[in-house]
């Protein structure tokens, strides 16, 4: 049976601001618990307010590894003022731009998971370029343009250990509306076509692939 989060972790997840639905969250947790058994860190691209981070962090804690999460905290294109996914509460009134870092910190504090997460604040390709170690899991849930999704894949997938899991969120094989976008779907296809990954599962828009070869 796949691992499931305890009620207090689920409660913290459901209370957190963010974009991860429960069903996909449970699939994320199960994959994270499996990957954490490799004994390597788990990495997320796209922290936002820490909703999905809670699940990665709890799975990491159970296995005694760290969860890493990367975000510049200024929001994706579709989260900016005037766009469909904008939340006015995420705007820093002093700077006049989005800043999801304070809410993320509150989310982790409320969940009791601060000690298990390393927050990397910066642009995903820049962080990936200086990252040196192997990872047990890479969860791509950052920007939805082709530029960002491709850079996340190219930057982070090569750091996945053999047997590690690549998770991609917001994979929509059929275009739903103007906002959802299909860049994550194209990245998913590219990963499969590379021959380095084998599909493990699909839960709504979450795809789980295992690194089974080289040549990313
Ligand atoms: N995982 C979150 C949702 C992430 S939303 C949840 O469960 O709710 C996508 C996030 O990706 C945004 O916070 C945005 O700031 C971040 N992002 C987009 N492009 C990025 C980039 N190139 N580098 C770092 N973060 C990026
Ligand atoms: Mg997402």
Structure description:
The mean pLDDT is 96. The protein has a single domain (7-211), classed as Rossmann fold (3-Layer(aba) Sandwich). It is globular, with a radius of gyration of 16 Å. The protein is built from seven helices and nine strands, in the order H-H-E-H-E-E-E-H-E-H-E-H-E-H-E-E. With 216 residues, the chain is of the alpha/beta class. It has helices spanning 7-15, 22-36, 51-63, 101-111, 124-130, 146-156, 183-194, and strands at 42-45, 67-71, 91-92, 97-98, 117-121, 135-140, 160-168, 197-203, 206-211. Bound molecules: S-adenosyl-L-homocysteine and magnesium ion (MG). Magnesium ion is lined by residues 19, 141, 169-170.
Helix content: 25-40%
CATH topology: Rossmann fold
How would you name the CATH homologous superfamily?
Vaccinia Virus protein VP39
Biggest sheet architecture: 7 strands, mixed
Number of domains: 1
Order of helices and strands: HHEHEEEHEHEHEHEE
CATH class: Alpha Beta
* Molecules bound to protein: S-adenosyl-L-homocysteine, magnesium ion
Radius of gyration: 16 Å
What fraction of residues sit in β-strands? Answer: 15-25%
Overall strand count: 9
The averaged pLDDT comes out at 96
Low-confidence stretches: none
Distance between the termini: 31 Å
Helix count from the secondary structure assignment: 7
Strand order of the largest sheet: 5-2-1-6-7-9-8
CATH architecture: 3-Layer(aba) Sandwich
Derived structural class: alpha/beta
Shape descriptor: globular
């Amino acid at each position: 049976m796949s691992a499931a989060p305890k009620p207090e972790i689920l409660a913290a997840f459901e209370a957190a601001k963010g974009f991860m639905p429960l069903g996909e969250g449970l699939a994320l947790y199960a994959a994270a618990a499996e990957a954490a058994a490799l004994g390597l860190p788990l990495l997320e691209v796209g922290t936002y307010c820490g909703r999905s981070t809670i699940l990665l962090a709890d799975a990491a804690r159970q296995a005694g590894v760290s969860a890493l999460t990367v975000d510049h905290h200024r929001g994706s294109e579709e989260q900016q003022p005037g766009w469909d996914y904008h939340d006015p509460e995420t705007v820093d009134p002093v700077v006049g731009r989005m800043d999801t870092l304070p809410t993320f910190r509150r989310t982790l504090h409320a969940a009791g998971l601060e000690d298990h997460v390393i927050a990397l604040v910066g642009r995903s390709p820049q962080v990936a370029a200086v990252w040196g170690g192997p990872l047990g899991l890479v969860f791509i849930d950052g920007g939805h343009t082709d530029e960002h999704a491709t850079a996340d894949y190219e930057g982070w997938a090569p750091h996945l250990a053999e047997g590690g899991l690549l998770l991609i969120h917001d994979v929509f094989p059929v275009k739903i509306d103007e906002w959802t976008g299909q860049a994550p779907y194209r990245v998913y296809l590219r990963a499969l076509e590379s021959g380095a990954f084998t599909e493990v599962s699909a839960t709504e828009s979450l795809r789980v692939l295992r690194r089974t070869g080289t040549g990313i």
